[in-house]
Structures are given as structure tokens and as C-alpha cells.
Request: fold
Amino acid sequence: MDPESFNLFLFGGSTAFGFNIKDDETIAAYLQQTLNKKYKNHKISVYNFGQSGYYSTQERILFERLLAHGNIPHAAIFLDGLNDFFNREDTPFFVNNSYSEILDKHFMLRFLDRLNKYFNPINNIREHLEKFERYKLSPHTKRYYWDNPKEREKKFNDRPILEKVIKTFLNNASIAEATGKSFGVKVGFFWQPIPHYNGDKKYLPFYGLLSERHLYSEFGYKLFRKKIDSGLVKLPSRFGWLADIQKETEGFLYVDAVHYSPEISKAIAQYISEYLVSWNVLPSNLDE
Reply:
């Protein structure tokens, strides 16, 4: 890090990373541009630590490891929400679905079987056609739940699961905040926008492509907002609710099922910059 710069770390998942958009269209890039334009007498550097699939537990651990190795910024912010409900078991998704399979004693047999199918194009085509036919007949498809709101709520509005996810996030935030304080790092948290919470469907062409694991967040967001409004949760000292900003932003805000377009990335960066100013996170000697 540049010792002459005000250094800000951004943590999050693939939405923070900037999946499917250019490097200069990410939230981190827009935030750095916005802050440097606002405070012309000082250099501000924003470091993007967004990683695919990451949620609050992984982000907290990464933050701790960076500090332990002497990488100490002036401030750190976390963008969360979507992946916390996606990883509702509080176990990284790839651990559940990849590493455990590799460790399975029957992995090699399945691997050889898949290898055989891969190099047998006729069998490969037949298998995909069979899967497609089963998909069309199955009621448990993504389209099925989007077209049946009552069934979607019945399956995914699971109160114990949602309560657990919210509690885990708040505990992670509390630990990260305390850790940052002990290192002299000001820490803030933002609850991110998602397409299936207050999103306008006419601007969401990929709405029905959300995976089932993503559908819990629709109801998790509603529950969290209700708890906040009722004063039933203790929020971090620096917390910004950004989940409603897409109601004020028209246009195609997502480049696929969940990842942000440049337009909403820029809007998120602007809101974050305003929060940072109101929180007095930026040094007072940064004269406009």
C-alpha cells in the first residue's frame, strides 16, 4: 500500500468483485474515482477484495488475515446480503460441493464415468436431452417458483434459517468491527441491492435464472428490514441499507441473474461515498 495514500479495503462477493463488467466499472473503481474527485488534495486508494461466492464469514477471516500480515488500511467496508443467504449453512458453497466430493472414496469411479461420457458425444447429447425433458416435467424448477409466489414463499420463507443467517452476519460484523478497532481501522457495513427485493421485473430479463439457493434472500431481506424497523436487532455502529436504491434507479441494473451493471455499480459507489462522509471515516484534513 502507498503510505502517502488514504487506503480503503472493500470486501464482498462477486458483485463487489465486478463479475461480467470491466475493471473500471466496478464499485471499487467508481468509489475511488468519486472520492478522489471530491477530495482533490489527497490521494485515496480503494482495494477490491471481492471474491466469487464470498459472504460475511469468509470476508471477516480474510480481513483478519490481511491485518495479521501487516496490511492495515485506514478503513474497511463490507458489502453483504446476497451470499449470506446463499451460504445459509455458514459453510462456503465450494466446500460443500467440490472438496467433499473429492474426498469421497467413490470419487475416482465417478470421475472415470464422467470422463467416459465426456469423450462419448452421442451419450453426452442423449444425457442432456433426458435432463431437459425431466426439467420441463419437474415442478421444482426456477421458473416454477417465479410463476407461483405462494409456493416460493412456502418453500423459501423458512424463518429459522433466515434468523440464523441474519444472526451470523451480525456476529461477523461485530467481530470485524472490534478487530478493526484494535488495529485503528474504521469499519463499515452495507446491505447490498438484489434483483428479487424491490427490483422492477421489466428491467430484469434474467430474473427467472436465479438459482434456488438465491431465493431465500428475498424473504431474508424482508425479515431483516422488518427487524431493523422494529428495533429488534443491534446493528453495527456504521451500517448502510442500500437494498432499496434500485427503486430510484431505472434501467437494466444487472448484467445477468445477480451481478451489477456499470450503472448500479456507480450508484452504489455514490451512496457509499456519502455514507463514508457522514460517518467521518475520511480524514478531516481532506479539504474539498
User: Anything to note?
Assistant: The longest helix spans residues 159-182. Residues 13 and 54 are 4 Å apart (CA to CA). The mean pLDDT is 87. The two ends are 24 Å apart (CA to CA).
